[in-house]
Write a structure and sequence with these properties.
Elements: H1 2-22, H2 24-53, H3 58-61, H4 69-83, H5 86-98, H6 103-116, H7 119-125, H8 132-163, H9 165-177, H10 191-207, H11 212-241, H12 244-253, H13 258-272, H14 275-287, H15 293-306, H16 308-316, H17 323-345, H18 348-367, H19 370-391
Helix pairs in contact: 2-10, 2-11, 2-14, 4-6, 4-19, 5-6, 5-16, 5-17, 6-8, 6-17, 7-8, 7-14, 8-14, 8-15, 8-17, 8-18, 9-17, 10-11, 13-14, 13-15, 14-15, 15-17, 16-17
């Protein structure tokens, strides 16, 4: 009886394998389409925030109230959470420094941008709320990035205020770099041209609404809805395609060890020029069980390092007397993220803190989904807002 059952199960497994093999290419095409939808969704949410606050240039106005380190940190966090792009915000900060903003004031802003950018992958994780196990994995995977960046700021901002070591090192390196040829940052971004047609269609629809604020809110709603849909669809498809050789290849590039994960996250982020995109694409993989939170952790660190390319490229386009301070703040961004990885991930007790905090928060969020939304609002808007009141 058991032998017959075993034979039937084996034959069924073979049939399922043949069916999967026959439709493998078709399934992968659907995966690519939903990944594209996710990329479009992230861009749509970012564009919606920009439209609702009055354009990307309005990000600079968000920094106008920052006259001390705490307010500067809050400004960087809020601006990035609203604009949904640390690349945009760090480029704005480079421009502000080139225009006369002191480097010392810009450093907390850069650190705040690191915190604010993590809101995107936290939103993506909410798309897994339909399944408790998937949601727990996805939410922990997204918030481990948050807690790592919080810890990095807690360690390095006080040190920088007391010693100025980041700015001192960065000035030295910037002086050696300034004088090189300028580079056009747009020529390095191939994701934006790919998503632009779809984003433009949605933006065109939003533009028919009575005012920019309403249009921006509509884009945010469409983007978040598309994020949830694409994450759910991706989760189902990834379970089908991430078997056998496909899973082995991915594990060789990311799951082999910390250094491999950091390198993969860095390269991926340099290519797409968005740490949010890198981490947002990884969250569904963790939610689907392809990777663990611990395996994804180094990828988020690599994403932090890779995202510094945007500020560096923006700084190389600045010429004249403003070139040195612009390059200095870009180098500060690079050194801050490199040192955070070396110190926090290099020291085991510190390395475990973000993982522990993310797992505990995920446990709470699974028990009561409302906690996930409370965390989102508190971490990125209420606490920064209270920081403004306390610091003034």
């Amino acid at each position: 009886m058991s032998e017959a059952t075993s034979t039937v199960s084996t034959n069924k497994a073979k049939a399922d394998y043949k069916l999967t093999s026959r439709h493998y290419g078709r399934i992968w095409m659907r995966v690519i389409l939903w990944i594209y939808a996710l990329l479009v969704a992230v861009s749509v949410v970012g564009s919606g925030f920009k439209m609702s606050v009055g354009g990307a240039e309005a990000a600079a106005e968000l920094f106008s109230f920052a006259n001390n380190a705490i307010l500067a940190l809050v400004a960087g966090t809020l601006a990035t959470a609203l604009v949904q792009s640390s690349s945009t915000v760090t480029s704005v900060i480079v421009g502000l420094v080139a225009g006369g903003l002191p480097v010392e004031m810009a450093i907390p802003m850069i650190m705040g941008a690191n915190i604010g950018t993590t809101i995107t992958n936290t939103l993506v994780s909410l798309g897994h709320m339909g399944c408790s196990k998937s949601f727990k994995r996805a939410f922990a995977a997204s918030t481990v990035h948050d807690f790592f960046n919080y810890l990095a700021v807690l360690i390095f901002l006080p040190l920088e205020i007391m010693t100025g070591f980041l700015s001192s090192m960065s000035v030295y390196v910037a002086e050696a770099i300034v004088g090189g040829s300028s580079m056009d940052i747009k020529s390095f971004n191939f994701i934006k041209p790919l998503t632009k047609p779809a984003v433009s269609i949605i933006k065109g629809f939003a533009g028919t609404l009575p005012d920019h604020t309403l249009g921006g809110l509509a884009m945010i709603a469409i983007g978040i809805g598309l994020i949830f849909t694409s994450v759910v669809k991706l989760g189902k498809l990834l379970k089908k395609v991430m078997v056998g050789r496909a899973k082995d290849v991915l594990h060789k590039s990311i799951g082999r060890g910390p250094m491999s994960g950091i390198a993969s996250g860095t390269i991926m982020t340099v290519m797409v020029q968005s740490s949010s995109t890198t981490t947002s694409l990884m969250v569904p993989l963790v939610g689907s069980g392809v990777f663990t939170v611990r395996q994804m952790y180094p990828v988020t660190l690599g994403a932090n390092i890779g995202t510094t390319i945007t500020a560096l490229l923006a700084a190389t386009a600045v010429v004249g007397s403003a070139a040195l301070p612009a390059m200095t703040i870009a180098i500060v961004h690079l050194f801050f993220n490199l040192l955070a990885v070396l110190v926090i991930y290099g020291i085991k007790p510190l390395r475990e803190i973000p993982l522990w905090a993310a797992e505990k928060l995920a446990d709470l969020a699974v028990k009561r989904k409302i906690y996930a939304f409370i965390y989102l609002v508190m971490a990125f808007f209420v606490i920064p807002g209270l920081g403004i009141l306390v610091a003034q």
